[in-house]
Design goal:
The protein is α+β, with helices and mostly antiparallel strands and about 500 residues long. It is built from 15 helices and 21 strands. It has a 7-stranded mixed sheet with strand order 5-4-14-15-16-13-17. Strands 7-2-1-11-20-19 form a 6-stranded mixed sheet. It is globular, with a radius of gyration of 24 Å.
């Protein structure tokens, strides 16, 4: 097929279910014009990777795009609300900071708020307190409070941003119901072969057990780490980032709830990786992401179980992976979505976002039968850049540390880092400047929270900050902190908000 062979794509085949497959199917079923058939092939014999239970605020856009009622979604998936991620023991043992969603304070006359805060820290009279005191999401998270943000930009509540914790398997089921109601056909079966055109190398069909054949024109690979289409059939090479992100295994186990529902994820650094805690209405998700070169499997499993706050609700399940991505995510008539295209550990809860990003960009560049190189190149350029930007943000957490209590942290602290991350650190280290590059996922406020939380202080600040009268800045900062404090105090508890609006039938009492 060439750019000249035009005509509508009418048959889309998705290989693999789980979160990636059903997010893709639901989006296609609602957003692609009529006349396009969507078939999803999955096997119940093949398990899914269920670590994507924590999300970031961009998922709200996906749910709204599909017209999903948020309370219904929360009830169906046992979800809770998430205002950020708490990082414990990352800069050094005993430390804790929050990467909140939302903004810190408000800029003044073109000067970023964090510049005012840094100037006040240097003056230390009066002590401005932690920068998190000036972010509503951070203060509400610490106090266990939640409400939905205001649409009025003049309200302090408009600065609140949130995401979700949910059961990924239940979310896939929720989306499957939507997709099938909209006409997606699910086929049960295991793919055993892939048929390709002898001349072009395009995929023509997938063969299932029992000598069944599913023909298609556009194939979407949601087969997880196996990458059956993009990796195996088309041979697109994998680029490893293990030298920067050495964690390659995880144990995961659910546990019983203990105490009130916290509106944030927790990531606790350990001697050979880190442990996650994700609170749902009906259980708590737990895991230990670790480097097999620095701890053996049994010791990692014991460390996970020893750190649980409630009783384990099953046996720990092990996952094996390698950080990195395919050299291309769209090749010929095949697009990889999710783990089939790349993997970055769930430290900043980006797995589901990268699925969503792949889907929305595919929709904006949806092909005809010509499968034009221009659109394919644009998709790959933008998606690969996003993977690299997320990679750099995750590497920052490991590299920017004072920990020297284990060989794992010695390796992370002293390793060379990508030039793109070095450039960001240099810009911050000079005058505390952070720029959001085109299409970059993480906001300057996110970078600032992590840079300061990991203990990286700049040598100077923006000279424009020095032009603002110190007395006025102090009064302004005190006003912002007071408004945020009062707004958070007036919010309902996270527990009571859920009970009133979206309690799940799966819900366990505190």
């Amino acid at each position: 097929m060439t750019d000249g062979q035009l005509g509508r794509v009418t048959k889309v085949v998705i290989v693999g279910g789980g979160t990636a497959g059903w997010m893709t199917a639901a989006a296609l079923s609602r957003l692609v014009p009529s006349g396009v058939s969507v078939t999803l092939v999955e096997s119940e014999e093949i398990g899914t990777v269920g670590v994507g239970e924590a999300t970031i605020p961009s998922l709200l856009d996906y749910n709204r795009m599909l017209g999903i009622d948020e309370d219904a979604f929360v009830r169906a998936t046992g979800a809770t609300f998430k205002l950020g991620i708490e990082f414990r023991d990352w800069a050094r043992p005993g430390d804790s900071y929050l990467h909140p969603f939302g903004t810190h304070g408000r800029d003044v006359e073109g000067v970023s708020f964090h510049q005012l805060w840094l100037r006040q820290v240097a003056l230390s009279n009066p002590d401005p307190g932690p920068i998190g005191d000036y972010c509503l999401s951070a203060v509400a998270a610490r106090r266990g409070r939640f409400t939905r943000p205001s649409g009025n930009p003049q309200s302090i509540l408009s600065s609140l941003f949130y995401a979700f914790h949910f059961d990924a398997a239940l979310y896939a089921t929720f989306l499957r119901d939507i997709a099938e109601q909209d006409g997606v056909v699910r086929v049960e079966g295991r793919v055993v072969a892939v048929d390709r055109d002898a001349e072009t190398g395009f995929i023509q069909s997938v063969r299932l057990e029992g000598d069944r054949r599913i023909d298609g024109e556009l194939f979407i690979d949601c087969s997880g780490f196996r990458s059956l289409l993009l990796g195996d059939a088309l041979g697109v090479p994998f680029t490893s980032w293990k030298h920067w992100l050495p964690c390659d295994r995880a144990w995961a186990v659910p546990s019983a709830r203990q105490g009130p529902l916290t509106p944030y994820t927790r990531a606790t650094a350990d001697t050979a990786g880190w442990r996650w805690r994700i609170p749902l209405q009906h259980r708590v998700g737990n895991g230990y992401v670790y480097s097999s070169a620095h701890i053996d499997d049994d010791d990692a499993r014991r460390a996970l179980l020893a750190g649980l706050e409630g009783q384990a609700l099953g046996e720990p399940r092990q996952l094996r992976f390698e950080a990195g991505r395919r050299e291309r995510l769209w090749d010929r008539n095949c697009v990889a979505i999710g783990l089939a295209g790349g993997f970055l550990e769930p430290l900043e809860s980006t797995s589901i976002h990268l699925i969503q990003s792949g889907i929305t960009r595919l929709m904006s560049l949806f092909p005809d039968m010509g499968f034009g190189a221009t659109e394919i190149d644009a998709y790959n350029r933008v998606m690969l850049r996003e993977y690299e930007q997320v990679r750099d943000f995750v590497i920052l957490h490991y590299h920017a540390t004072e920990r020297s209590d284990s060989p794992f942290w010695d390796q992370c602290r002293t390793m060379s880092i990508p030039a793109s991350l070095s450039a960001k650190l240099a810009l911050w280290s000079g005058k505390a400047r952070v720029f959001r590059e085109q299409g970059e996922l993480f906001t300057p406020d996110g970078w600032i929270a992590v840079l300061l939380g990991q203990g990286i202080r700049p040598s100077s600040i923006d000279p424009l900050a020095a032009t603002l009268p110190p007395g006025e800045s102090v009064r302004f900062m005190a006003h912002v902190r007071d408004m945020i404090d009062k707004t958070a105090t007036a919010m309902p508890t996270h527990e009571s908000f859920i009970a009133q609006h979206c309690a799940s039938p799966l819900r366990q009492p505190a």
